[in-house]
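RETRY 2/3 - previous attempt timed out on the joint model. Re-submitting the same 608-residue input unchanged.
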Amino acid sequence: MSGVQTGPGVFAGARPGRARPARDARRRGGEAAARRRDGAWPWLFVLPLFTGIAVFYLVPIAQTLFYSFTEWGVFGGWTFAGLDNYARLLSGRELLPALGNTLLYTGIVLLGIPIAVWLASLLNTPGLRFASLYRVLFFLPYIAMPTAVAMVWRMIFNGDYGIVNWLLSLVGIDGPYWISTPGIAMGAVAVVGLWSSIGFALIVLRAGLKNIPEELYEAAEIDGASPWRRFRAITVPLLTPSIFFVLVITIISSFQLFDLLYAILGSRNPILPKSMSLVFLFYQAGFVDGEKGFAAAVAMFILVLIGLVTLVQFRLQRRWVHE
Amino acid sequence: MSEAIRPTRLRRRGRRGSHVIPHLVLATGGLLMAFPFVWQLVMSLSTNAEVQSLVPVFWPAELQWQNYATVFERLPFLDQLRTSVVITVIRTLAQILLCTLAGYAFARMRFRGRGVLLALTLSILMVPSQVYLISQYQIVQGLGWLDSIAGIVAPGLFSAFGTFLMRTAFLNLPPELEEAARLDGASPIRIFWSVMLPLARPSISVLAITAALWSWNELLWPLVVSTYQTQMPLSAGLATLVSDRNNTDYPVIMAASMLAMAPILLLFIVLQRRVIDGLAFSGLK
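RETRY 2/3 succeeded.
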């Protein structure tokens, strides 16, 4: 679990609650307090939280930006390094493999979204029994401790006696050493990522399906639309806001791949240098090699990358997301 | 069932065809999703030879329950479990207290600087955690809190997401009760505590389970601030276990993993109806 958290409200723009303050309250004749200030009380309510947010989050963000222009010695002192860290980053020697691996992982995990759309529409079949059992089964991997499930996946993918290679041997294929072969290891990690995130997509999409009026389907049926046609013309377009939400969240969290990679490969795995994700590169630089300046530059890169990709998605939103 | 309802039910059933295909697909998918958990359980009850046999042993010759006892003997498991429980309880309670207070003020009170403070708090939602990790580490180091519960817990006491969640919850509550209480001369803290908090209970439970789940599973931060296995939470403890070459007693590792996951999974299964949707929308991973 890491990093960016968000909720539907972030996407909803103006929520109904937003317009509520003074004017509406006056109109309802209720609050004589429309102009009232609450004196010192609000500060007592807000300051405990905000002090912590400022100390542990806001100041550190500014500090990391500053650190990204510095160089750190072995004994903890720093010197100003200008753009050196960024030059090293953009030379691509470390960045490109990490970025490539992260994008590969993200691409495979995103395959879960169309599958989840299909599963959600099946789950939404009126009167379907065991629907809540199915929901739980699909959702469990999403909330299970990543390092704990990584243990079993390491065994499943084991090159000598793992169940995957045993299944492959039944059809005459000699399976690879999944966890110690560069490239293939990232594929294995991505399969686990797909397994653990599909439940999230399923739940969100199913909630979206619940909001599609039944009458639309009935009307389409009277007009003689086939089930496939109904799915294409009603379900998918009306589900696009939910699909958009899932897409944005999935990309943000996939770009921050760390836990599964670290736990499945193990920190002493010889192929690690070739199998880094962006966050792994950050961790390695900042907390293993003690290069905090470079790590800060990597963190800034992750911030900008996620920001840009999310921005592009919102720009493209108008083209395909149903209002 | 009255006669009037029957035909529509039949027609609906007819409209989407029978339930065979949905059940077939969902049951197959569900089994695939559940398989790793089941497999982990089976391996945790096997011998090491069975786990490493070339043909998978789907049911051990004899259930090796002592693997679970071994977990407590051999690993720093109890220490790690205690750490996990303590940090999860502290963070969850702290987030409930701090986020409801702040969320309430942001939603219902008027004061100078409210917009700025709110915008600053919410801006954190957009920033990936790596961006503040280095400085957080230095703060904790400066306070002498490395390798301590305080160090692991500190940054996670404060949650921008929780504040956002609670503010939304309070915005959506009707104002009448609050006004009635105010006319009766209740103080703001009294109104908050006895009138508003009970009304916000559903959102508070989503906040609580979100905080607990995140705290229990989190890896990167505990890994960074704790060096000794005895002081890590389970999430970091299991991850470092893998890198230990001498640790090849796989059934015991599987048993430890099962035990580490169990509390959260059970909690979730008990609370699922209430929480599943709220959780999904928080997109907390």
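The radius of gyration of chain B is 24 Å. Closing ticket.
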